[in-house]
């Protein structure tokens, strides 16, 4: 026995919602409310569920959304409530609306600020009230548990309430097996560690079968009930209840409600943390691109989020070599995955560094904002050492060449954008100068940036072509490799033996080609000022590419 979708729409906050499709299915019965976390998985559905989702895992996949809608209908679910429209799912696709109308499956959207917990509690309450004449259990207790959800209390409150209701010691362990709360009860560290061991031993059984498990403490001899907190197959932690030899049916119902409440509280905390992380990331993105009208506005916004940005003075940027990406045919999806792997690795490597203000990813780059270390010299030296250390460890761990650029030291928060821009230039110039992983300080290569900044790439390509044109024409007519040889000489500092090794030819062949190059150009490109011209042309060619 439950309520209809039409009746549910009369309950706040669904009164704020809008039925955008499937209006002919509003008489479907709602027997429970569930969070749709694994959209394509249906084997756990029992029918009658009003499913809630943000579609965040399939927000950009319309075909998957249609598949999910068909699966919900085939599983006799009652409807779908879409939350946080505009955050993950930017808008509801027309194809989904058409399909929902075709199969008479209600699709409801609610305002972005509505949390899952705001929907679940009152609807569940209404269902329970409808069942009260046919079910013989203590509705007052269930209502109390529901109120814990309605009041948006945290896990401490939920566990304390359950402990008080059962008159037993109750603990909660999170997904990392950390004891978050003991419900205001004094529990020995040894007993807590014993429970942790039991959770680790049984965690696979929890996830596979979602079973309650009773263990006997080797320390105290009391029986302990371990209750896995699982919602739609996802594990969120474990409730441990001590001395459970005399539990009654009503107690098991209280435990079931509390278990569900804990799961929803964890989900809500995860969502809030994700939203906060998103807001902070947007702030730092605005900071390095300087999307503020003045420093006062930037500092005030940081203050509202409890961010201390006043000491940021320098940007260090990490980028995977583009040649490595192209040669390994890495697509954008795999590139983002690799960047995220390196990002998580870097966070772990420098988590104890006190001079790091924030780490972020942007445009397939990892950006580290560094605080002032006392003065410009100390800060730049710190950044250089950090960059060198990261290059070596990333190269070893991921076997991927990376380029690191360090911008200039800045004394004003509004000029952090300059340091970011300089770090990108340092990477670009360093890539042209070195054929391997490098950590380039913009201060060192700034002179080259003055030569190449804002250059007309078409004009530059034309000038480079003219410089090598006599050799390229001869190569085309005689099927030779003089242009390749000259560029190899430049890159190898005109060391003949090294060029021979790189081109897999005899040293005498290199010398013969060099003489022919001098003959065609009518000057020796190794001598000043011609050497400088060809070296600059080679660097510029790489930067233009």
UniProtKB/TrEMBL annotation:
Domain PucR C-terminal helix-turn-helix, by residue range, is 484-538
Gene3D superfamilies given in the database record? PucR C-terminal helix-turn-helix domain (1.10.10.2840)
Q: Which part of the chain is the CdaR GGDEF-like domain?
A: 294-429
Matches recorded under InterPro entries: CdaR-like_regulators, CdaR_GGDEF, PucR_C-HTH_dom, PucR_C-HTH_sf, PucR_dom
Question: One Pfam family of this protein, by short name?
Answer: HTH_30
Q: Which intervals hold domain Purine catabolism PurC-like?
A: 17-127
Name the source's superkingdom: Bacteria
Which family does the similarity line name?
Belongs to the CdaR family.
**Name the UniProt record assigns to this protein:** Purine catabolism regulatory protein
């Amino acid at each position: 026995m439950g309520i209809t979708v039409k009746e549910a729409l009369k309950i706040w906050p669904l009164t704020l919602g809008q039925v955008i499709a499937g209006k002919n299915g509003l008489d479907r019965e709602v027997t429970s409310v569930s969070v749709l976390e694994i959209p394509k998985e249906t084997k756990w559905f029992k029918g009658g569920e009003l499913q809630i989702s943000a579609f965040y895992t399939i927000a950009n996949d319309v075909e998957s959304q249609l598949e999910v809608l068909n699966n919900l209908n085939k599983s006799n679910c009652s409807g779908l409530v879409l939350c946080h429209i505009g955050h993950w799912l930017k808008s509801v696709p027309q194809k989904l609306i058409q399909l929902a109308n075709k199969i008479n499956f209600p699709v409801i959207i609610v305002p972005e600020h509505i949390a899952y917990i705001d929907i679940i509690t009152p609807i569940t309450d209404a269902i329970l009230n409808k069942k009260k004449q046919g079910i013989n259990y203590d509705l007052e207790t269930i209502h109390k548990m529901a109120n814990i959800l309605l009041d948006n209390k945290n896990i401490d409150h939920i566990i304390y309430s359950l402990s008080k209701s059962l008159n037993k010691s109750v603990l909660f362990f999170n997904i990392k097996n950390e004891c978050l709360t003991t419900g205001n009860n004094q529990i020995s560290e040894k007993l807590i560690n014993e429970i942790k061991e039991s959770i680790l031993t049984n965690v696979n059984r929890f996830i596979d079968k979602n079973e309650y498990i009773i263990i006997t403490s080797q320390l105290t001899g009391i029986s302990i009930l371990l209750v896995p907190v699982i919602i739609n197959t996802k594990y969120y932690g474990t409730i441990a209840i001590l001395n459970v030899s005399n539990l009654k049916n009503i107690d098991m119902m209280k435990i079931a409600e509390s278990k569900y409440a804990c799961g929803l509280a964890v989900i809500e905390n995860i969502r809030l943390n994700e939203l906060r992380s998103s807001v902070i990331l947007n702030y730092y993105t605005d900071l390095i691109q300087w999307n503020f009208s003045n420093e006062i506005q930037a500092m005030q916004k940081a203050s509202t989020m409890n961010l201390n940005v006043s000491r940021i003075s320098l940007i260090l940027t990490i980028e995977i070599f583009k040649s490595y990406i192209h040669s390994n045919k890495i697509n954008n999806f795999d590139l983002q995955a690799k960047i995220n792997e390196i990002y998580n690795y870097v966070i772990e490597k420098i988590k104890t560094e006190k001079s790091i203000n924030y780490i972020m990813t942007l445009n397939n780059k990892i950006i580290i904002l560094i605080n002032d270390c006392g003065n410009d010299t100390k800060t730049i030296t710190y950044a250089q050492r950090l960059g060198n250390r990261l290059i070596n460890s990333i190269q070893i761990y991921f076997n991927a060449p990376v380029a690191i650029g360090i911008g200039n030291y800045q004394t004003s928060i509004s000029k952090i954008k300059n340091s970011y821009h300089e770090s990108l230039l340092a990477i670009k110039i360093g890539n042209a100068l070195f054929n391997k992983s490098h950590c380039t300080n913009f201060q060192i290569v700034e002179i080259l940036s003055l030569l190449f900044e804002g250059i007309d790439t078409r004009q530059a390509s034309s000038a480079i072509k003219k410089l090598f044109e006599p050799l390229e024409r001869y190569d085309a007519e005689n099927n030779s490799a003089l242009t390749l040889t000259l560029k190899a000489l430049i890159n190898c500092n005109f060391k003949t033996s090294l060029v021979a090794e790189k081109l897999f030819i005899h040293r005498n062949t290199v010398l013969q080609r060099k003489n022919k190059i001098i003959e065609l150009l009518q000057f020796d490109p190794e001598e000043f000022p011609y050497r400088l011209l060809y070296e600059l042309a080679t660097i510029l060619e790489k930067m233009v590419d």
